[in-house]
Amino acid sequence: MNEKKKVKLSVAILFYLTLFLVSFVFLSVFSYYTSPFTTCDNGYDAAFFRLVGQGMTKGYLPYRDFFDMKGPFLFFIEYLGQILSYGRTGIFLVQWINLFFSLVVISKLFELYQIRNRILQIGLMLSLAYIASFTFEGGNLTEEFSLIPLLSCLYLCAVFFEKGECYDTNRPDKIYWCSGAWFGFCFGLLLMIRITNAALICAMVITVVLYLLKNKKIKQLYICAGMFVIGLIVALSPAILFFGMKDLLSELLEAMFILGFKYSGEKTFIQHVVETLQSDRKQQLLLIAIPCFVPIILHWKGWRERFLAFVGSAFTFLAIASGNNYTHYYTLTIPLLVLCEISVVDSIQNKIGKREIFAAILTIVMLFSQLSIMREYLDKAYLHLFQPGRFNTEQLVQDISLRIPEEDQQSVFCYNLNPNWYTYADLFPCIKYCGWQNHYIALMPEIYDDLEFTFSSHPPSWLVLPASGGELPLFLEELLSTEYQLVYQNSSYALFHFSG
User: What are the beta bridge partners of residue 495?
Assistant: First the structure.
């Protein structure tokens, strides 16, 4: 190996080590629900997802022992983390690997568009980290684990746009075979995590299909479609076979699709859109709007790239608006922001004119518009890192849980409490409807009947409620007055024992 190649290899190794270190530092600060340096708070949804993964190491299963609308691959990811290391450290390791490879794919995207300067790449990635610092919302949420499928598909789409049939002159159809299968596989992964997270893949598929139709590449279209279906089947098969063998397929479908559909259908789509547009954090919408228009303003590349930026932004907006406009949904904009950055830098590398200056200013405005939100989450990170004493939930939970005899610890149920209670207590629920019960009962009244039957046939030995009470189902109010006795109460929780 000559000296020039040695230097190039050394620079590459140093660059990837830097990405590895940046991923660790970023998650240590901003993934404060899983960071090994911020053990005072487990979060809410993040804690529930981890709880399911921890339960799976003990023989518990999603949908049988934990009722939630998220897909099984999310829980397999959580399970993997708990196999690596039980508790918050395990899922942190998975997040670290996930973020590192996300940055590697982003780097490959930059290189594809001739952005090869490593310092510039890191600078562009830091601007993305600035956005992720608040869109991750404490870490360990579905959108974070959707980045590799989305970014890898974006990379393949970009390869197709840039190289097309020149991708492999010896096998001109290779790109269609490979890309179609990978797109289908990634779509299946996201379908089994949270289906709306696949919105950008849908936009990419539409763009490629239109290109193939426009250029009358019917054979290649058939290849892509066939391989997409094969990739989709490969992705879905493990979950279907696993839960089918456990006789839980109907429970999976009920939770993912029936509950998920009713959850999204609580409001009309127009209501969702209006609420999104009227949000207190309207500036977050710039993370969708500006990446939509910057490539168009620049007349960047061909119609395919501009069409993808527009449709991808539109689909991502629809995915975000179809939910409750939570900040973590905006993690899905990161691939769009990558495309936006590439279009600006690539255009400036060719020439600097009025359009390029205007697009660069728009991108900078977009970044600065998020400063107030970023500061809010930076303050949260600071409190978790340097003022852990302000978080006393764990102490309050353990004040209750340590009063439960060891022989009864598999017969504990919380109502009107977030499932993170179980992670602080290091216990597992004895009934699968372990969180958000009133909300889920409103969506699916049959849950009321299931709970009533369970309490009448196998009542939990111990029941934990908020000290403030809260709305309870009628059957539970009756049991509290006849069969359960208050044993202990602190400022947050009340502990009841079944005495019937």
Answer: 464, 488
Single out the residue of 42, 13, 12, 39 nearest to residue 421, CA to CA. 42
Tokens of 434: 């372990």
The confidence score (pLDDT) of residue 268 equals: 78
Distance CA 287, CA 290 (A): 6
For 171, other C-beta atoms within 10 Å of its C-beta total: 11
Residues 269, 322 contacting (CB under 8 angstroms)? yes
Residues 6+ apart with CB under 8 A from 461: 408, 411, 412, 497, 498
**Strand 412-414, strand 462-466: pairing:** parallel
Nearest CA-CA partner of 159 in 179, 173, 177:
179
C-alpha torsion sign, points 371, 373, 378, 383: positive
pTM of the entire predicted model: 0.94
262/273 Cα distance (integer angstroms): 17
**Distance of alpha carbon 299 from the chain centroid:** 32
Task: Tell me the mean pLDDT per 10 residues along the chain, length 500.
Answer: 78 94 98 95 96 97 95 97 95 98 97 94 96 97 98 94 61 73 97 95 95 90 93 96 95 91 80 82 93 95 94 95 89 98 94 92 95 96 95 96 95 96 97 95 95 95 94 94 95 93
pLDDT of residue 169: 52
Q: What is the CA radius of gyration of the chain?
A: 25
Residues 315, 203 contacting (CB under 8 angstroms): yes
DSSP code for 57: T
pLDDT of residue 324: 80
Q: What are the helix (H) ranges across 370-445?
A: 371-386, 393-401, 420-425, 437-443
- 421: tokens are 């209670």
Strands of 178-280, DSSP E = none
Q: Residue 497 phi/psi, 5° resolution?
A: -115, 140
In whole angstroms, give the CA distance from residue 65 to residue 63.
6
pLDDT at 215: 87
The Cα–Cα gap between 228 and 237 comes to: 14
Rounded CA-CA distance 449/446 in Å is 5
Gap between the Cα atoms of 379 and 299, Å rounded: 40
